[in-house]
């Protein structure tokens, strides 16, 4: 066990996102995002809630920084609310200095506390005005140009920030926002959920536009800011580890690989290899956009590091016959049990999440092999707990299930670093505190810190919060 280690310059900390924690949606001139309007629609959020107050972090930056310090966090990954900085979002729309000043101060306060900021430019809260003006993420010309302008405003205002992330999880924005309709803006072919949307085409267009917008922002950073400020920039991708349902069936083995291609390589292949995966082109044909030469040049080679969000694993069973037009998995199904009675992991509060730490090591190796052993920052990892929200507070604070999840996942990552040559250099636990868990509202808690929503958003660190500092201290090599 003591043979496991992480590199001496390894950084760890906690992660959050603006809409999930900030609240104060009208303060200091902030404009509405697609999540504000989505939450107002009936039956979109499980508990009928929204980010109106959330954890009130907009008004508690000092308290949040003190919490990070107390827990030993060396770095903090958070996102900016685009509509605080440019309330309407567009490149010809006014900049809101009050919103920008808020983040400049926050960054300076973090640095003064010795905490390294990792900034996500967009964690799903697209300006609502851009959605209404030209279809938001669906617009291949306008959206990348507006995003690139917003990115430039942020780079310019915060030269002291050396770690930038363009987008969080384009898979979720595309598939959950434009195929399943479970996330904003809620478009889908399912007419019980939405009057508008086409699940067979829109998610692939949105994914393409996010890649191009990412590429545009990276080009600006590298040409206009990196030479003087230094610093790095990348996109964050999510994806599960996979195992074949029947390891002796070559079709299940292939399907398990194809599931990762449809989730991760959809974005990572264009970035590292310059083209969409062959498996996706084969299934989707011309529903998957084709890169123009200009677009390809923007996207290919556009990551300074690999940003990895990872939570779970699945067994994968291939499907026979033609996939449905709205299929986004790659003509396969996922299961919790394998043919031989294997169980992927214990249930949590999140239907899609079951802990399986060996999968973390396996996926780190898979990614490293396919993309040439890039530097990896794990930008999210964590778990909910079945029934946690219904427990008395004393019991919530004793979150041994979460503590064990972190212990096993961090050790699996250290194993990949020590034994497999994986170049992992940073880790962020999701999340610093319980927060607005999107379509699940506040019923699902992912925090290492309990937030008492009924008593002024007061924060109470859970047991898991105090486990990470000694754990990383035992693994990170001393100079
Ligand atoms: C991530 N899935 O979302 C997000 O980046 C966070 O904002 C979120 O709070 C966290 O994970 C926990 O959910 C995901 O259905 C949401 O596979 C859904 C899925 C994956 C990631």
Automatic annotation (TrEMBL):
Record keywords, A-Z: Glycosidase, Hydrolase
Position of the signal peptide: none
UniProt entry tagged with the keyword Hydrolase: yes
Matching InterPro entries: GH, GH_1_N_CS, Glyco_hydro_1
Catalytic reaction annotation: Hydrolysis of terminal, non-reducing beta-D-glucosyl residues with release of beta-D-glucose
GO BP field: cellulose catabolic process
Pfam families associated with the record: Glyco_hydro_1
Top EC class for this record: hydrolase
Gene3D superfamilies associated with the record: Glycosidases
Keyword Lyase attributed: no
EC number: 3.2.1.21
PANTHER family per UniProt: GLYCOSYL HYDROLASE (PTHR10353), LP05116P (PTHR10353:SF36)
Family: Belongs to the glycosyl hydrolase 1 family.
Role of this protein: Plays an important role in cellulose degradation. Shows hydrolytic activity against several glycosidic compounds.
Protein name as annotated: beta-glucosidase
